Amino acid sequence: MQLPVKLGVSTWLWTSPFRTEDAAGLFEKIASLGYEVVEIAVEDPFLIDTQKISKELEKNGLQALVCGAFGPTRDLTSDDEALQKNGLQYIEDCLNISTELGASFFAGPMYSAVGKARMVPDAQRQIEWNRAVDNLGKVCEMAASRGLELGLEPLNRFESDLINNVDDVSRLINDLNHPAAKICLDMFHMNIEEPDPGLAIRKAGDKLIHVQVSENYRGTPGTGNASWGAFYEALKAINYKGAVSIESFTPENKELAAAVCIWRNLADDQDSFARDGHAFLRKWAANKL
Question: Which residue intervals define the domain Xylose isomerase-like TIM barrel in the entry (predicted)?
């Protein structure tokens, strides 16, 4: 059985930060490799001209998804209210970009700063949880007013101390109690935090609106020990119809370098990563591995 999914790839595989002038050459390459979706990683909204990028999307027959980069200056749980405010403004900018590029949601670990992983007292943890809920409540309203949803993404324990697995993100969504709050699951993080990745997908169920994939070491799909069979069966079981998008990074990543800890190339070159990854995912989605 063919999974009814579209295959995508993140701009982070090639470049950081993504700029308007990258779109023409990069989108042509992505389309030529067979992808239907490009996941645009917005590190700096001021580098994005949505009119020009929309023309390149249309020219290459690509659908756009938008994800965010939440470095230490964009922290909805910070003790510093200025950092909370900065995070909210950044998210609003990304929501506007999502709307203008025709995306239906904005995704990422927007509840806190990536790399914020500490041992803190339970009382402080609760304060930060409450801040995340309060601020994301505002974000849900901003998204809903634009006809968008949010793909809230759990991160592994080395990149976040707040939301690490599907149970955590489900609790967050329950506390938010807003129809715009949905789930994005990343296979890399799941391979660290979920004892049973297939069960995690089933738990997400109809809340799951986006799936990111790479191998257990962030490498090319099909070259590691990720649970591809379990992923296939679980996505089929919940009738998932969204995108399955490769997310990995170049060692030159700016906003998240210290958090993602990629200090070397994970393939011979990034084009080979994307080409081989697409070939593997096409067979995987067709259940022909």
Answer: 27-257
